[in-house]
Amino acid sequence: MRTPPWYLAFEPRPSARLHLYALPCAGGGPSAFRPWTRHLPSWIELRAVTLPGRPGRHREPAHTDCDTAARALAAELAAELEGQSVPYALFGHSMGAMLGYRMVRELQSAGGRLPELLAVAAWPVRGALTQPDPRDGDERFIASLRALGGLPDELAGDPALLARTLPVARADFTLCASYAYRAEPPLPVPVAAFCGTRDPVAPERGMAEWRAHTTDFRGLRVFDGDHFFVRDRAAELVSAITAILKMRGPAARREAGRAVQLRGASL
């Protein structure tokens, strides 16, 4: 069966008991999640979301508005879930966390099937300071990307790669700037939050506010790292997500109660 163009399953698992859809950060693509496959148990199939403008969807313009993007992604997910019974979860890193959150709101409004878990990393529910500024010239924009840690040296030194990457990155940061926090009732979906100790974009105090936006908070887990702890601490992060997905009922609530005290090395 052909893999739908909006996600990549690097290792299809037909007997999986849960599908984990992963949304990347600004400027990122599905390849960011390729290393996760070797850390996930056999009962979870990873489905890395391919956003418009990336390879495989390069003929589609990248989204620049978060609500438009969330509606489109929710529609793609709803179509995928139709006729399926396998539960699913959503994970998002930074921009991906924001899109995952707005997707769940869209699905809820439409009466769609909701995820078993919404896992959000490095994006406060009230929004984040948009840096880099997509209105900056190339030199300043590239410098800001590098300062954030989102532009590897090998890419920064390759003019051809930069020419393909910068338009998508600008569109993504424009999308991030379009996010507006809305006071809405708590989601009827379990939410788990993750952040890095040295992340200026999503500090611990901001990430802790996710607790008020769900009826079932599965805790905040803090990892040693910056905005890209998701990349640098992949094995520990995947282990933590897997443990949360295993938990149900009272055990999940007890674990969530102490999770805010945990650090990545102790998970």
Key phrases:
Rossmann fold; alpha/beta; 267 residues; globular
Strand order of the largest sheet: 1-3-2-4-5-6-7
Average pLDDT, to the nearest integer?
A: 88
Distance between the termini: 37 Å
| Main β-sheet description | 7 strands, mixed
Query: Could you tell me the radius of gyration in angstroms?
Result: 17 Å
Number of helices: 9
Q: How many E-type strands?
A: 7
**Structural class per helix/strand content?**
alpha/beta
The CATH H-level superfamily is Alpha/Beta hydrolase fold, catalytic domain
Architecture, according to CATH? 3-Layer(aba) Sandwich
Q: H/E element string?
A: EEEHEHEHHHEHEHHH
CATH fold-level assignment: Rossmann fold
CATH first level: which class? Alpha Beta
Low-pLDDT runs of 5+ residues are none
Strand content: 15-25%
Provide the domain count: 1
Helix content, binned percent: 25-40%
How would you describe the shape?
globular
